[in-house]
Amino acid sequence: MSRLHKVLNAIVWVMIGVLGIYILGYGMKGQSFTKAAYACAKALTGSEGGIRRAAEKTLYPGLAYVAGDRDPSYSFEEFLIRKAAQLFPMYTYLDEREIYETEIESQAAYDILVEGGVHDENEIDERTGEAFDLAEKMEEENLKIIEEQDLVQEDPEGEVPGAQYTAEQLTDFDFLKNNFYIVENNTDISSEVLNGEKLLNKDMRIQTDSGEPQILIYHTHSQEGFVDSVAGDNSTTIVGVGDYLTELLQEDYGYNVIHNRNVYDFIDGELDRNRAYALAEEDVKRILEENPSIEVIIDLHRDGVKEETHLVTEVNGKPTAQFMFFNGLSYSKRNGVIDYLPNPYIEDNLALSLQLKLASEQYYPGLSRRIYLKSLRYNLHLRPKCLLVEAGAQTNTLEEMMNAMEPLAFVLHQVLGGGEIMEE
After folding, report:
1. What is the pLDDT of residue 130?
2. pTM score, two decimals?
3. Is 406 exposed, middle or buried (0-12, 13-18, 19+ CB in 10 A)?
4. 324 has which bridge partners?
5. What's phi and psi for 281, nearest 5 deg?
6. CA pair distance 192, 55, nearest whole angstrom
7. Is the Cβ–Cβ distance between 403 and 319 less than 8 Å?
8. 3-22 and 76-85 helices cross at what angle (nearest 10)?
9. Are 243 and 258 spatial neighbours (Cβ–Cβ below 8 Å)?
10. Which of 78, 175, 295, 408 could form an SS bridge with 74, CB 3.0 to 4.6 Å?
């Protein structure tokens, strides 16, 4: 073989290698070439366990994404040609316009395995680089609309201090979506799924008696703290708040509650949320196998907001952190149903959060924020009555958080127990 042929052969193989990395990193996962190359380099040069983690980040989401495309509109050969063509600069402009949304939506499995986030980290504005809280921003934008509408009606007998809604309002899809929900921009919800009549008619009451465990409380992110949390003292973190919620549900309302205080986001002495949801799922499944009577699962978090934001109101004369119910829809606006994150209980999940939201508005108007809808699953597939709660934020005090558990326990009992005092 001549020298020229050898050079050309080397060039061809380099290009094939580059294209391979590109397809794995960008075509399957939605990442840029730089990110893909970095992930591969990290897999080859990282410390023990690096290859496994890089595989989770790069290969699994890609394979899941491809597996979900069961009816491709073009052949595999055309797919390769398209990806090869995208290496050229002429595609840069169009590519950059879609990269943020593409990364979010085609990396759903990656987010579950690696990011492990729900809504406790600020979003980043791609144009300015500034952090902002999306839920907070959307609430602010809609505040004037809410105030202009006559939504709050006083109870004629004065027995209920908060909001009352008509059946017509609660069965109107647009009314529900616009007044009770924040829908993140990479997902959506239809009138078929958000059917007020069906969701409000679902019986969410607990069926098992308190002789067996009924409720499980746990924390995917156990290290979430507050403005006055003490380092190393779990009683001053979200875990301590979960202790108090457990106490209230047991002592005041007679439920049988298991509080799982296990840690999933603190590995080898460092905060690490890379596999928090995966680890939590394994542990929760084990608990459910050991306690099949459990009907309700609550993953208790605190939100993450801008430092100048303080999510607090007053309840019974006490400063009280606001809370927010959260649902994962396993649905991408771009790709539709995320079939590799199945959740047969989405309707039940939505029914529980909506009924709790209405109870909150009825008894504690202004205490609960809008229900947050996101595209992924967040382990809400483990039981029909699965709930994720974002209580307060990092800017709240521990006292404000503890105070919030009292109305939260009350509205939980209104929905789960029908407001009746349960026998111990």
Report:
1. 55
2. 0.68
3. middle
4. 390
5. -60, -45
6. 37
7. yes
8. 100
9. no
10. 78
